[in-house]
Amino acid sequence: MENNKISVGLDVGTTKIVAMIGRKNEYGKAEILGIGRAKSLGVHRGVVNNITQTIQSIQQAVQEAEAESGVKIEEVTVGIAGQHIRSLQHSDYITRSNSELVIDEEDIDRLINQVHKLVMLPGEEIIHVLPQEYKIDGQAEIKEPIGMYGGRLEANFHVVVGQVSSIRNIGRCVKSSGLELEGITLEPLASANAVLSQEEKEAGVALIDIGGGTTDLAVFKDGIIRHTAVIPFGGNVITEDIKEGCSIIEKQAELLKIKFGSAWPGENKDNEIVSIPGLRGREPKEITLKNLSKIIHARVVEIVEQVYVEIKNYGHEEQKKKLIAGIVLTGGGAQLKHLKQLVEYITGMDTRIGFPNEHLAGDSDEEIASPLYATAVGLVMDGLKRQERKRIEKAEAEEAADEVIASSPEVEEEVVKPPKRERRTFLDKLTERVKDFLDNAE
Predict the structure, then answer these.
(1) Alpha-carbon span 295 to 265, nearest angstrom
(2) How confident is the model at residue 422 (pLDDT cuts 50, 70, 90)?
(3) In angstroms, how far is the first alpha carbon of the chain from the final one?
(4) What confidence score (pLDDT) does residue 415 get?
(5) C-alpha–C-alpha distance, residues 9 and 382, integer Å
(6) Is 287 helix (H, G, I), strand (E, B) or coil?
(7) Contact yes or no for 244/202 (Cβ under 8 A)
(8) What angle do the packed helices 426-441 and 164-176 form, to 10 degrees?
(9) Is residue 212 within 8 Å of residue 331, measured between CB atoms?
């Protein structure tokens, strides 16, 4: 099997690290060939805090995926999240020296590069600059300015900022695990690609990805990402609370949460009781399910309310910005019973649970289409897209080279224009910078 048709997503999470191998089948859907997962010990709230342990977990997940698929993994697409990610809205403009010429790629690159001069907090860098809409000479709501005339070009941007040291640390872990970094993607974007349909992104939707250490939010409207946020709480704080509240060990608390937990306390009768074996020679503990769901409820409400504040920050309450498709919940935390009802109750928005089967091949395993794997599936898809782009660029470059050779020497004056390429996203540039940094840092 050719390796250039295969993409590997590496989801470095707080609870688990997943390596997923996929390729495109003939229908253009992603077919998952193998999956490996390992307990993640060196990551806290989405940020690496122990490099050695993270490397071990990555290697374990990768070996498992290799064993299942029979494919050797060389390059991976990795996701970044974590509490250091924040986003802001910013508008900027450029004045064009010659308004007789139409606006082209270069003008837009110039405008985007201007955004990079924004002053950040120490150690922060811009990860993503996403133009929202453009204005030309004061005419608003222009989706695609290329090819239009105008002297002043301005745009609103959604700027995502993160700590460069945290991103480098992830790169470092990947590299030290004997892997190459093929690409870096923002995790909320990856999850969104895996579970949302194009219609939802058009209508307006908020994707809430509840992980172990963080809860990621991505808001789309009119097909464009409008807002991202990472909230530094996830399923693990719920487990912590159960552990403290019931005086039991973490493993028992996690099991209780998964097997008997509910986000809605009214569901349980007063007399439903679970008995938990005591530690070595101690009496078993009895816990009422009502108490359990009260503990869970209190924590979940807190998480959902914080996310809702972010959705309101985006401006969901303005008529024009209304999110018609409501909320989609994904990530491991989305499996909590009655969570959908609770989220609808708090936000008043339509809610569904998102399974990453939007772009998966029809015969995929039940297990893979679990919300747990949304980010991993999204990363695989991102890698496949990236390869497609590389292939097209390579083919175009060869074509252009052939044209240059074919053109006769008299017409040397004519410069061969390379075909229009997709604008390289900032993440591609960031990936390259992180790679260079790691190569030179050895």
Answers:
(1) 9
(2) low
(3) 33
(4) 47
(5) 8
(6) strand
(7) no
(8) 60
(9) no
Fold of domain 197-356 = Nucleotidyltransferase; domain 5 (3.30.420)
Rounded to an integer, what distance in angstroms lies between the CA atom of residue 437 and that of residue 431?
A: 10
Q: What is the pTM for the complete model shown?
A: 0.88
CA distances, 209 to each of 14, 101, 231, 329 (Å)? 13, 45, 10, 6
| Two structure tokens written together for 319 | 């008529």
Q: Which of 157, 154, 158, 129 is nearest to 140 (CA)?
A: 154
Q: Which residues contact 264 (CB under 8 A, 6 or more apart)?
A: 293, 297, 337, 338, 341, 342
Q: How far apart are CA 210 and CA 228, in angstroms?
A: 14
Q: Is the pLDDT at 383 greater than 70, yes or no?
A: yes
Distance CA 306, CA 326 (A): 16
| Residues forming beta bridges with residue 95, ordered by sequence position | 152
DSSP-assigned beta bridge partners for residue 210: 215
Q: Tokens 């910005």, residue?
A: 321
Please name the residues in contact with 323: beta carbons below 8 A apart, sequence gap of 6 or more.
Answer: 203, 204, 205, 206, 219, 221, 311, 316, 349
Distance separating alpha carbons of residues 181 and 355, to the nearest angstrom: 27
Residue 117 has a pLDDT of 86
* Closest to 247 in 3D by CA, of 278, 273, 212, 268: 278
In terms of Cβ atoms closer than 10 Å to its own Cβ (0-12, 13-18, 19+), residue 385 is middle
Tell me how far apart the alpha carbons of residues 375 and 190 are, in angstroms, rounded to a whole number. Answer: 6
Distance CA 102, CA 177 (A): 48
* In contact, 128 and 69? CB cutoff 8 Å: no
Residue 291 buriedness (CB in 10 A; 0-12 / 13-18 / 19+): middle
The sign of the torsion formed by the CA atoms of 65, 44, 210, 434 equals negative
CA-CA distances (angstroms) from residue 67 to 18, 40, 55? 14, 20, 18
> Which tokens go with 381?
């898809």
For residue 419, CA distances in Å to 124, 302, 429 come to 35, 51, 20
Beta bridge partner(s), residue 227 = 219
Which residue type, as a one-letter code, is found at position 29? K
Angle at 140 between CA 137 and CA 144, to 5 degrees: 90
Q: What percent of the chain has pLDDT over 90?
A: 66
State the Rg of the chain over Cα.
24
Rounded Cα distance between 158 and 163, Å, is: 17
For the chain, the structural domain boundaries read 197-356
What residue type is assigned to position 124 of the chain?
E
Q: Which residues pair with 360 in a beta bridge?
A: 30
**The residue count for the chain:** 442
